[in-house]
Amino acid sequence: MSDIHTSHDGASHGSYKSYFIGLIISIVLTLIAFGVVMTGGFSVPVMMVTVVVTAIAQVLVQLVLFMHLNTKAEGGWNFIAIVFTVGILGLIIGGSLWIMHNIHVNMMLN
């Protein structure tokens, strides 16, 4: 009996091994970000970069290992979904940073 799950159309939905690897990678990435912030031994820019990089890696792990999105499945529609997701994330994160920067610059400190 194979541990690879397939749907009615024959597409692969991963194996227990890929789910386990995804879980371990997700836990490690979470612990890295948590550890860097909670130790307090790093500068703010280092903490910010570490959290952002681990968050991006976490999203990629979730998309590839748990949601099984790739460029080959379903005629490329999964790739379009990935591009759309990256675009929306870019708009949300970029817009949030822009708004926070403008609020910081325009606040009266005295």
Automatic annotation (TrEMBL):
Source organism, top-level taxon: Bacteria
Keywords of the record: Cell membrane, Electron transport, Membrane, Oxidoreductase, Transmembrane, Transmembrane helix, Transport
Transmembrane region(s): 20-40, 46-67, 79-100
Keyword Cell membrane on entry: yes
Localization terms from the record: Cell membrane
Chief place where the protein resides: membrane
Protein's membrane topology: Multi-pass membrane protein
Record's subunit section: Heterooctamer of two A chains, two B chains, two C chains and two D chains.
Protein family according to the UniProt entry: Belongs to the cytochrome c oxidase bacterial subunit 4 family.
Protein name (record): Cytochrome bo(3) ubiquinol oxidase subunit 4
Lineage, broadest ranks: Bacteria, Pseudomonadati, Pseudomonadota, Gammaproteobacteria, Oceanospirillales
Gene name of the encoded protein: cyoD
